[in-house]
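Record 1 of the preview.
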Amino acid sequence: MTDPFSLFDSWYTKARETELNDSNAMTIATADAEGQPSARMVLLKGHGPDGFIFYTNQQSRKASEIEENPKAAILFHWKSLRRQIRIEGHLSTVADSIADAYFASRGRDSQLGAWASDQSRPLDNRATFVARFEEMTQRFAGGDVPRPPHWSGYCLIPAHFEFWQDGAHRLHERRIFTRNNEDWTEGLLYP
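->
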């Protein structure tokens, strides 16, 4: 049996070589307590056997939905390779030390933007956001920009993988992996 994390690494490495833009872009689908789904693009910032990590404002819509319902799905689609990977699982917040280290690695303007943005909240006009960014630039002038208390990362801990490979005449290949405690079972689906 193939390890789904090794297979992911193999496909992801190939995507990093061939995908023109944002090979780490993934769709994350969440749902609120009533089951109303929503999806958006985020960037994968870490992965391994412990899960798949992305970062966001914890006051955003997605973070509110995660708080209400921590189950989610992510999707990677690499058009250049004619492949996609779906991963379903449970989300948990990353440790503060991990969020701090990643935040410190971001560009200064991205750090300032995290302070300036009330992500997912109504904005009266673009000038307000630009002014807030300038305020944060002045506030942190000459020093490091600390991670905002409302900004962190989430890790999707997989329970299910589906690896989809395009095939001629719609004879696609769909390989699935389902977690059973610490083990994985492998199977195929009709395309």
